[in-house]
Amino acid sequence: MEKKPFERPFIKKLQAGVPSKFGMKSQAEPISHIDKVPVTELLAEYGSPLYVISEKAIRDKFTMARHAFTTRYPRVQFAWSYKTNYLDAVCRIFHQEGSWAEVVSGFEYDKALQNGVKGSQIIFNGPDKTDEDLKKAIENDSLIHIDHFDEMYSIIALSEKSGKRPKVAIRVNMDTGVYPMWDRFGFNYENGDAWDAINRIMINEKLDLVGLHSHIGTYMLSTSAYKIAAGKLADLAFGIERKYGVHIKYIDVGGGFASNNTLKGAYYQGSDTVPAMDEYADAITSAILNSAINPRNLPTLILESGRSLIDDAGYLLGTVIANKRLSNGNRATIVDVGINLLFTSFWYEHEVYPAAPVSEHMEETTIYGPLCMNIDVIREAIAFPLLKKGDQFVIKRIGAYNMTQWMQFITLRPNVVLIDPKGKVHVIRKQENMELIRQQEVVPEHLK
Ligand SMILES: *Cc1c(COP(=O)(O)O)cnc(C)c1O
């Protein structure tokens, strides 16, 4: 029989987190495999830390989301939010599933083109579009979502030169009952700016108003906020129909559906409180179907969901560097995953699991990253078993935003691998090396 490692006995009051009416949040079983591939093998082959993305999880989630909307509404189109995760392999999975691209910069726009997305299937959002970006988007018949009047005037001026009639939508911000309100993007509904923008576009024949857009926030737990947003966009669409006799081709309600992660300080786990995709779909589609819009001219419903579609598919694997006791006696575990790789640890209480069965004794533990910086904390307080130096762990639900907001800071960025539906592992972004960093730097002659 194998000898179990010794652990000193202790008695300790658990204080990690606040008990809800169901008691303490409990740590589940270890995660030893991802899509049947052993975590130990992944780390041995590709190094630690390591990002792992499950292609099956992406496709399953997408299929579920598509089903939720297409069973309730006749014309539905998803557009993948590039900033949420713009690794080409990830984007191409979404495009294979039929998603268009939703981009917010010239860089993302070019990435979408390079991923084979047709210009007419790129939605161009965001407050910062240069004249160069706009020219390209007009040339390619992309859908330009206007953020402010200055942008509208630029597009009008550019269209005069190009001889094309740009396809535009306006971004609308509004009171949906969720505060603080995101009113910095687009034109406000309540104060009449949205109508002002619509009227200016409609009387100017150079622009083709094809859609109405909103993106009311992110990690939105309220389905009624979407109902209000979709209802207000539908009212605008109906108003345009009545005033100008023009049918708006699409209503785009943006992204922002919550993923199953738990926000810091939340009383319940995210997986218990986050609405199901069916509930979001119900709220949005019923608002449009129950509006005054003539059912024969129902606009296409566009969704730009990011985090809710990709968060679950991403894992971050790592290794314990050391354990220590802090001055107050609390246990600290230092790991090789820092906030430079897990930006979302600022907002989420990420779930961390051992990669192999360990002690059943939990102790309040702070999990620190490897950076020489006080704020490098992955979990402030988690009921966690003792993982020794060299033990491996898995952080769940990290697919959204971490692989775009990561920082090359103190260390280099590690490999990202994709596990395909057959269980084959592919490197989809190589770990960075010194050469890559040096290529970008120039030492002036006098310092050589
Ligand atoms: C970021 C963003 C999205 C995606 O948001 P999620 O919260 O990740 O779903 C969609 N649309 C726009 C305009 C965005 O800026």
Which features would summarize this protein structure in a list?
single chain, alpha/beta, TIM Barrel, nine-stranded mixed β-sheet, 13 helices, 20 strands, 21% strand
What does this structure look like?
The chain has 448 residues and is of the alpha/beta class. The protein folds into two domains: 33-52 and 313-434, Lyase, Ornithine Decarboxylase, Chain A, domain 1 (Beta Barrel), CATH 2.40.37; 55-311, Alanine racemase (TIM Barrel). It contains 13 helices and 20 strands. The protein has helices at 39-46, 55-70, 88-96, 106-114, 131-139, 149-162, 193-203, 223-244, 270-273, 277-289, 307-310, 402-405, 434-440; strands at 33-34, 37-38, 50-54, 76-81, 100-103, 122-124, 143-146, 167-173, 187-188, 208-213, 250-252, 300-303, 314-325, 331-335, 352-354, 363-368, 377-384, 392-396, 416-419, 425-429. The strands form three sheets. Strands 3, 13, 14, 15, 16, 17, 18, 19 and 20 form a nine-stranded mixed β-sheet that branches. Strands 4-5-6-7-8-10-11-12 form an eight-stranded parallel β-barrel, surrounded by seven helices. Strands 1-2 form a two-stranded antiparallel sheet. The longest helix is centred in the middle third of the chain and has 22 residues, at 223-244. The mean pLDDT is 94. The chain binds pyridoxal-5'-phosphate. The site of pyridoxal-5'-phosphate (PLP) has 18 residues, from helix 11.
